[in-house]
């Protein structure tokens, strides 16, 4: 970043001399060069010096690197374009999004470092891409990140939930498809309002506020917007009672599905979430009307399975 600010005229030659190092047999040289290029992409100087396409293409070429750290840093660099040259993200949107999806699907990523960077970078890029570029990938990304909502790693929970919230802004054009994804994630997002990590709770509040307008229930949308502000403390029991009332008024046919998802969390390793799940079910059953109450399997509830 210091070189981007103070050594602009020297950068073209430095970049030219570093590019061969991206093919070095030594991991350390590839990591260092990729890290340098990744940070460089966070500055508009690469655009001013007409280096953007060169550096970007070389970052994309690192996606198959044998070193996990190189693949992760390459995605960080591509995400940094949103800060360094946001006006260029639209032009290269399809390629950038494809790179992020490839990162999410990385098969040799045991600690999910590449996936974490892909989710973080996607959130940066989404504010600048064309809607048509994201629409074709929307469903795949939503399905792919869903398992991370319950990851043992708080960074993965946070990044995946924030990304899900950011994706929802593109749901209006294909509301039916993404609405299904919102319903699939709704119980998890509501339960993780009791997550032990404050940053994950904040992410859930954000995602629910973003998803509210796509749910077709004005009362629920208003509740999310009013009660889930970052600066507002939440009375969880009272909030969930009212949420369940709106859910059963608007989607009574969803009762069995909502109960089944909650039952999964009876065995959660997080005690507050384990406690929230039966309360969630209790409020659902409390507010369901007689017509839809046969959906409730009492034997299943009593056994907690």
Automatic annotation (TrEMBL):
<feature type="domain" description="Maestro/Maestro-like HEAT-repeats">
    <location>
        <begin position="56"/>
        <end position="303"/>
    </location>
</feature>
<dbReference type="InterPro" id="IPR055406">
    <property type="entry name" value="HEAT_Maestro"/>
</dbReference>
<dbReference type="Pfam" id="PF23227">
    <property type="entry name" value="HEAT_MROH2B_C"/>
</dbReference>
<dbReference type="InterPro" id="IPR011989">
    <property type="entry name" value="ARM-like"/>
</dbReference>
<dbReference type="InterPro" id="IPR016024">
    <property type="entry name" value="ARM-type_fold"/>
</dbReference>
<dbReference type="InterPro" id="IPR045206">
    <property type="entry name" value="Maestro_heat-like_prot"/>
</dbReference>
<protein>
    <submittedName>
        <fullName>MROH1 protein</fullName>
    </submittedName>
</protein>
<dbReference type="GO" id="GO:0005737">
    <property type="term" value="C:cytoplasm"/>
</dbReference>
């Amino acid at each position: 970043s210091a070189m981007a600010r103070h050594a602009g005229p020297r950068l073209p030659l430095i970049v030219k001399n570093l590019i061969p190092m991206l093919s070095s047999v030594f991991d350390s040289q590839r990591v260092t060069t990729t890290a340098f290029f990744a940070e460089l992409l966070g500055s508009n100087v690469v655009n001013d010096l007409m280096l953007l396409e060169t550096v970007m293409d070389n970052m994309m070429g690192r996606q198959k690197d044998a070193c996990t750290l190189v693949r992760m840093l390459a995605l960080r660099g591509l995400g940094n374009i949103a800060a360094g040259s946001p006006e260029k993200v639209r032009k290269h949107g399809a390629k950038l999004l494809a790179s992020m999806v490839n990162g999410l699907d990385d098969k040799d990523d045991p600690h999910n470092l590449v996936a974490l960077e892909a989710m973080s970078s996607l959130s940066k890029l989404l504010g600048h891409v064309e809607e048509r570029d994201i629409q074709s990938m929307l469903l795949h990304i939503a399905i792919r990140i869903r398992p991370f909502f319950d990851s043992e790693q708080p960074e993965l929970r946070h990044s995946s939930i924030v990304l899900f919230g950011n994706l929802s802004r593109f749901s209006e054009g294909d509301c039916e498809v993404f609405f299904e994804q919102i319903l699939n994630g709704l119980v998890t997002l509501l339960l993780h309002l009791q997550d032990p990590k404050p940053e994950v709770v904040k992410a859930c509040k954000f995602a629910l506020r973003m998803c509210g307008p796509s749910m077709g229930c004005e009362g629920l949308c208003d509740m999310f917007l009013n009660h889930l502000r970052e600066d507002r403390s939440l009375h969880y029991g009272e909030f969930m009672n009212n949420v369940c009332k709106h859910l059963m008024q608007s989607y009574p046919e969803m009762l069995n599905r909502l109960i089944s998802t909650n039952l999964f969390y009876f065995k959660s390793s997080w005690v507050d979430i384990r406690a929230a799940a039966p309360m969630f079910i209790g409020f659902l059953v409390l507010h369901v009307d007689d017509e839809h109450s046969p959906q409730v399997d009492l034997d299943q509830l009593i056994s907690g399975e």
